[in-house]
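Example 3.2
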Amino acid sequence: MTVAIGPSFLDPQQLISTFGLIGILAIVFAESGLLIGFFLPGDSLLFTAGLLVAGGTYLHVPLWLMCALTSAAAVAGDQFGYLFGRRFGPGLFRRPDSRLFKQENLARGGAFFAKYGARSIVLARFVPIVRTFTPIAAGASRMHYRTFLIYNVVGGAVWATGVTILGYFLGQVAFVKNNIEFILVGIVVLSVIPIAVEFLRGRRRAHAGDSRGAGR
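Structure, written as C-alpha cells:
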C-alpha cells in the first residue's frame, strides 16, 4: 500500500518510484544550489532512499553506492551554486522577486554565511532553504575557492551519507518496517513544514509592510 499526502513533487516515495536513482540525484543537485530548488524535499528524500534501500523497494543498489552518488550530487549542486553566485552575484541582489525567487531567501543565505563564515557551508546542509542559498552567497562574496571546495566536500558527504544511513538503519527496525507507510507520511509532513513556515513568514512580512505603507 502507498500512502500519499500533499503534492506529488513533495512525496519522496512517489518521486523515487517514478524517477528512481536518477531522480534522487537530480533533486539533491537542484536543492543544493539552484535558485529554484529550495522547495524540494532533500532531507526527506535521502531518508526515504535509505529506507527503501534497506527494504529493497524501488532502489536495488548497495548502500555505499547510494551514499557515494548522493554525496557527489550534493557537492556538485553546491559547486554550481557557488560558481553561479560568483558570476552573477551583484545582479542577483538586485533581481526582483518572482514566484520562485525571493530576495529574502537569498538574504537569509547571505546572513547565515556572514554569521558562520566557512563553517556555514557545512552547517547550512542541515537547514532547509538556507542550504540552497548559502553556496550562492559564498560565491557572491568571493569566498576563497579552495576553502569553499574543502568545506563543500565535507558538508556534502556528511549530510548525504548521514541522512541516507539513518534512513537505512531505521528501515531495518521492526516497528519502522511494519509501519513504513505512516513513517513516509510523517517524512512528507516534516518536509512540508519548513516551506509552510517560510510561506507564512513571507505573508506576515508582506502584510506588515502594507500596513506601514498605509499608515504613512
